[in-house]
Structure formats: C-alpha cells, structure tokens
Amino acid sequence: MVNVRRLLSLPILLCLVSVILAAVAPQAAAQAPAGKTSPKLIVFLVVDGFPQEQLVKYYDQYGEGGFKRLLDKGAWFSNNHYSHATTYTAVGHATLLSCAHPYKHGVIGNDWIDKKTRARIYSTEDSRHTYLGEDTPKHSGTSPFNMKVTAVGDELIYANGKSKVVTISGKDRSAIGLAGQSGTAYMHSASTGRFITSTYYMKDYPAWWKTFYEGKPQDKYFGKMWTPSLPDAAYARSAPDDRPWSTNYKGIGTKFPHPISGGADKPSKGYYDAMIWTPYGDELTWDFVKAAIEGEKLGKNPAAVPDLLAVSWTSHDYINHLFGAESKQSHDHTVKLDRVFANFFQYLDNWVGLDNVLITLSADHGFMNIPEYSAAKNLDAGRIDPEKMIEAVNASLSKKFGDGKYIHTWWNPTLYLDYDLIDGRKLNRTDVENAAASFLREYPGVEVVYTRTQLENGQVPNTKMSKQVILAWHQQFSGDIVLMNKPNWYLFAKPFGYAATHGSPWSYDTNVPLVFYGSKWVKPGKYGDAAVVDLGRTLAFLLNVRPPNGCEGRVLTEILR
C-alpha cells in the first residue's frame, strides 16, 4: 500500500530544501576565498582635511572622470561622521582602516604627553627605528608601535600571506596609520622631496624606488606658480584671496599667484617643504603612486589575491590651514585634485581594468571656517590662546590651594595635572580637577569640560558630545581634564599659527565623505547615515577576511550587490 502522506511530504520536502539552499547560497558565495570574488586591487583614497560639504559643493565644476565619477556611479553617504571628538590627522588615519575608536586603537592625538616622564610622544614615533637613508629628526614617525590594534591590510595579509599592502602620504602619521602593522608605508620627506620609509619596514629600498629617484623627479615642479584653474567668476561662491587673516607660510603668500620655491633659488629643503602645501604636492604624490603601482605590480598579484593601495593626499589639509575651507584657494585646489583623480582612475583602467578595482574615498577629518569669517556672518566665533588659558586656570587654583603650577602641560585638547605637587600638598586630586573644571567652564570659547574622575567613573551627562569624548579618551594615555571648544572657535597650540584648524566634535569636523566605487560589488546611489568605522568593516567583509581586532563598525549591507 502506497503511503500517501509520505508522497505528499516529498514535494514539501523538496520545496523546503530549495528554500534552504536559496538562503544558504548567498552566504556560501559571501564566504568564497579572497581572490575569487574580491577585487584585484583596492584603492583606498583619503583626502586630508576634506569635509563632506566640499566634495559636493563644486560638483558642477568637476570633470566627468574624477569626483563626479565617484558621486554618479558610486555608493556614497551624505551623513557619514567620525564618532570621536578629537578630529586630528593621526587619529583619523588610525581609525579609517582599523575601524576602531581612539579609546581602543590608542592614537589619541597627533601628539600626547607621557604621564610619567612628561615627555611629548608623537603618534608614530619609535626610537627603535629611523628613516631609511635620511636623518631622522626628533619626534619623526617611523613605526605603528603606538597603534594597538590591527587594520584591514593586516587581516588581508594574515588571510593569505601573499597580498601586498602599500600606503603613501605626505605625512608619516598618515601613511603609518593606514599601513597598520604589516603594510609598507611611504611618507614625504621635507628634506629631499622623496617619498621615504623607515627601518621598521625594510632594510633597503627596492630597485624600482632607486630607479625612480635617479632622475630627481621631485625637482621638476621648481619654479612653477600656483594659479587658478578657472575664470574668476567661477569662484564667486568662495571667499576671495588675500584676506588679512590668511597665513603667509613658507613663503607661499596670501593671494594668487602663489610661488612654491620656499624662498630657495634651487631645489632644496625650503622648496621641498613648501611644495607639499600647494596643489603641486598632489602632482608629486601622483608621480610616486604610479611608480609604486608599477614597481610592486599592484593589482597583478601572481598569487591571484587582492592588493591594497592606500593614498592619503596631504595638500588639501595644509591649504585649508593657510586659507580656510571657504577660500578661493581651497576651492581651486579641490577642482585641481578632481583632475588628478580623473587621471588616476583612467590610469587604473589601463593598468588592470576599473572593473577589477574597488575604490573608496574618505577623509581623516573635516575643517572649520576661519573664525573671523564666521564672526563676519554674525556667528559666535573667536580664538583661544592655550597658554593664557593655562596661566588663568593656574592662577585660579593657586588662590584656592596655594601657589603652584597645577596644570603642567597642555596638549590639544587635554590638560595634564601635576600629581607630584597635588599629592605632596596632600590635596585631593578630584577636588583640584573639579576646581579647574569649574573655572574652565566659564572661560571664553569653552563649551564643555570633563575630568578624569568623571570619565573613569562614567559620571558624564548622557549627551552626544559626552559619547564623542568617551570614544576619544584613553584611560592610560589621555590627560586629566578634557575641554571642548564652542563651535566656530579656534583651539590649537598657537591661536594665530594658522588661519583655520580642525580637531573639534562639531559636524564641520566630523562629517567627511564615505564613497565606494566598484560596479561588481556596490550599488550606486546616495545613502544616508554611516559612521567612519563602517568603512573598514565593510572592506573586510568584501575581502572575506576577519575584521580588525578592535573593529566596531557595521557592514554597510545596504550598498552591496
């Protein structure tokens, strides 16, 4: 006798199997080994000091092949932010490919103070290593030792042992932060104009590097002038040049045309140093990027595994420091960088085929407008002099606790207490912290103040800014009193060292681009909310490698094919 119930269950069973297989199949594909479904080359682009608003502001003046290609054919997030409060170069670069926040990765600023020795620590300095083939000034970046977590490149190399990870930047802290522990970092030397590395990465330069610098290609821009790319009318949306608060730095001048000789009569240190502060720094970087791609055969890995090239373009940050993000110079530089990117993308298409390349774009931080510009717009704006602020708070504490220099050091944005003085007088540390914080909360330009006791014990208000500060503050390395400036207020080591700066928790500093381009992997379009830590996490997912060990981002599944 035929079992009707069994026969009836067979189609149902087959249906269920089909459903299960359909559900499992995408997961199986997602877990395919890197190299079979992954890009041949990941190009990770960072524009130093590039707020999101500048990416879209000049859209109508871009060519078809650069930024416009990324915006029109890539997936990009208009509301992407850093989650931490301290938006500095070293912090941002350490965050981008580690997808970790400063309280985890340990890079809490460009510099900080050793609490025991009171010595300055540069974010990427390591006395065990030196620049390769050049003198190593004090506090030079030579290794990732201070970065306590892994990055995407580390996990890619760990996964297959054969991928190449190369990073290039005008700043050592940028290149090293992107390289993680296992990549190879090249950084610009202001002494020779070359992109150099350190003994942490190699004992001798590769043959392609030596060949490239035989002809001194870094000298070919000497004697050139920085002039606008567009007619004057095209810059109407930006502030004019030669404003009184622009900074005449390294002999570049305050108005067009800008010389880049650095005051030198031939290629030398003054010229090499000044050049990176102008759009010619991008041209110099681009020259070396091509040499590195071809020398290392990036994207043509014989092991059929992905390579990763990360390039941080430094000049935009310097230009914004000198002239402000609202300036004609910053506007012109963005348009010029668009042309460089268009050439870069065309080169990649010829080299390995753009269909085999995944490109990302972001920034290490945004940028404020010049305070005087903001004040002219009737906004509350100004400049804080940290040295005067320290003098004032020490005077206040001296009245309460007896004469003394209770704050011994300032390093953006924290103050360090003299515990030897406080303990020697048998004072309560928390009482001194609270007295200092109470005074600073009334200081011009200060928005909020947090103390070590508050942060260690979680005694902070439940606000977004408190969360930003917590993510930026490291219990072992950070200072004792953290203060955040009001919006549009300049807070840096010297109040008039630059025309404008960054480093705050305000959206002009935290809102940066986040773009993915690669038709095989992402769905083009404009998307909404994201966090910078999501970028590295999504890359790790696409590469089928484990996330970096401190990673806190999410996979941006909404953009994935």
Provide a quick synopsis of the model.
The chain is of the alpha/beta class and 561 residues long.
Structural account:
By secondary structure, the protein is an alpha/beta fold. The chain has 2 domains: 41-370 and 507-559, Alkaline Phosphatase, subunit A (3-Layer(aba) Sandwich), CATH 3.40.720; 382-491, Gyrase A, domain 2 (2-Layer Sandwich), CATH 3.30.1360. 36% of the residues lie in helices and 15% in strands. A 9-stranded mixed β-sheet has the order 7-6-5-10-1-11-18-2-19, with helices on both faces. A 4-stranded antiparallel β-sheet has the order 13-14-16-15. Strand 6 (184-188) and strand 7 form a beta hairpin. Helix 4 (89-96) runs parallel beside helix 7, helix 8 (207-214) packs across helix 10 and helix 14 packs across helix 16 (429-440). The longest helix has 27 residues, at 4-30. The radius of gyration is 25 Å and the shape is globular. The model is unreliable at 1-36 (pLDDT under 50).
Write the layout of secondary structure elements.
Layout: H1 4-30, E1 41-47, H2 52-57, H3 67-73, E2 75-81, H4 89-96, H5 102-105, E3 111-113, E4 120-122, H6 152-160, E5 165-169, H7 172-179, E6 184-188, E7 195-196, H8 207-214, E8 225-226, E9 258-259, H9 269-275, H10 280-296, E10 307-313, H11 315-323, H12 328-351, E11 357-362, H13 371-376, E12 382-384, H14 386-401, E13 407-411, E14 414-417, H15 419-424, H16 429-440, E15 446-451, H17 452-457, H18 464-472, E16 481-485, E17 489-491, H19 507-510, E18 515-517, E19 525-531, H20 533-542
Parallel strand pairs: 1-10, 1-11, 2-19, 5-6, 5-10, 12-17
Antiparallel strand pairs: 2-18, 3-4, 6-7, 8-9, 11-18, 13-14, 14-16, 15-16
